[in-house]
Design a protein that fits this description.
The complex is a heterodimer of chains A (189) and B (423). Chain A is built from four helices and nine strands. Chain A has one domain. By secondary structure, chain A is an alpha+beta fold. Chain A is elongated and about 50 Å long. A six-stranded antiparallel β-sheet of chain A has the order 6-5-4-3-8-9, with helices on both faces. Chain B folds into two domains: 318 residues, Beta Barrel (Porin); 86 residues, Ubiquitin-like (UB roll). Chain B has 423 residues and is mainly beta. Chain B contains five helices and 19 strands. The two termini of chain B are 40 Å apart. Chain B is globular, with a radius of gyration of 25 Å. Classes of the chains: A alpha+beta (189), B mainly beta (423).
Amino acid sequence: MTRRMLLAYTAAPIARAMAPELLRVWWDDQTLRVQVPYLHFLDGKSLERLHSGAALVFSLQLSLSSDRFTTVVRRSVDRYVVSFDLWEERFAITGLGGAKTQATNLSRDAAERWVVDHAALSVSGVAEDKPLWLRMDLRADDPKESAGLALDPGVTLARLIEWFGRPQRGVDNRWALEKGPFRLTDLKR
Amino acid sequence: MSGTAYRSLFGLVFLAGLTFGIFTASAFSWNVPDDTNVNSRYTVERIDLSGVPESKLSTRLRKELQQRVGQKFSPEAFAQLAGRIRDELKVRLVAPRLLRGSSSEQIRVVLEVSGRRIDVIGSPSRLAYQSRQGLTADVRAGVKGGYVGFVSDGDQLMERFTGLKAGYARSFFDGRVRPGFHFQSLRSQFHASTLAMRDEPYRGYQIYQPDVIFTPWRGADREEVTISVGLRLQRFTTPSPGVNREASHALVNTLRYQRVWGEESTGESTVHAEYALRAGLARLASDYRFTRHEVQAGLDWSRGRHDVRLSVQGGGVSGDAPLYDRFAYGNTTTLRGWSKFELAPLGATRAVASTIEYGTRLRRKLMLAAFVDSGSVWNQNSRGAVRNSSGLGVRTKDGFYFYVAVPFRSGTVEPVFITGAYF
């Protein structure tokens, strides 16, 4: 083994350990919750459209797998409408679906945090000592591209999952982060 | 398939199209509900149109826009108005953009108009000339859904038909349901090679055609599916009156799909497909009982200087169809270079044709193009020979084209000149 190879072998785990954790997961009362401190999705074209007074729908999907996403054991999809107050220059968010949640007067960072903080995935019945993988998909959809699907309060989870699987025009409108393997028992509660 | 089965199929398609068209028309509101856009609490101070002069809008629509001034901003209402402007101006996109007003609590709405909308069902006026079949002109003028036109077409059918046509169609539910009525009064003139094989079948005809076009699905801004269902009431003027060969009434149904990707400046692709069914039924008091199926599909792809067009089409006729409904391939669009009178002087009951065309841009709008056409026409219980041709020419993005086409045949080289324009 050369010195260069030895250095590479030693440095890789150190670099991985020092890399910022992009998807943070914790466990709270049989519910998985996430944080993405380094992800800024209110940016680029989405931000331009929000500044033009449009309201955008963001959909966030959490998928939990016990076999590196060959199968998914738990899944949740949440949808939010984000708009930007032209005069106050602050963001407002409305959650779509069953219970309508709302927040106003948010800064850009606070709005991003609000969306991610409200995503939750039930893990009741999932073995606590088995290795798990979690994936977070977030996409911003111009409602006309999703043909009203994202706004339909009666839309089924199955249709939303199928919709998440479809290709989207702009790659800058879609983000995916993964974490794993981890065990529920190892997570912060 | 029996007449009853066709009637049931027609009824089913009609009802499904109507229900789905109406349902999706009411549901096709892409903007978010008012209470989810924080700017809905502000008052509209002014509305501007960008991209086209406001005078292009109808008085009614302008008035409705003005009525929104002084009211709270409603995303839902502006989405509907944007949809109506899109339909009225036949543009691709109308996007509302909000700006701060002159004082707090007020906003300005700018409706940004861009792009031309695809028209999957409209047929433009055209002029065409083929050195073997002569001139074709199909010119129409219309206003507010109505149109009148003159046609002398020696290209599409086995006969040259000349006369007048008129019609009216009106859109409902954001253009998703479009009933119409069309009339044609035409005189027919048959080629000598046709008359050498049979007596003159008719001298002309009138067509009265009520139809409804549904748009059950409209995807991203340039993607549409349309279903057209109609009844063609056609009555021939025969050389020998009273021979019971005067009426050729048929159900005419067409399913179309078209999608356009990309932009003209950066590269654009178009996919289109169509299935057309005509059925002459005894129950419609038709003297001709037949079914005619025809499918067409194609891809236009362009990037930078390059442009590729692929298309394939074909179909079959069964039963006793008039000459009008038989296939006439070998014209300015199919098997270019071949003469339809040479391939099948009485038309064919089976046909298939394909085109591969490559173009390279010479100047801004002018392209040099080369093509290879292949296909065959034949009749039931017989075999058709495969015919090939190729050609070279120029065309412009405005619709003008000029080709020299050469059919592949042994012995002689007989170039055919094809030119024309869509406008």
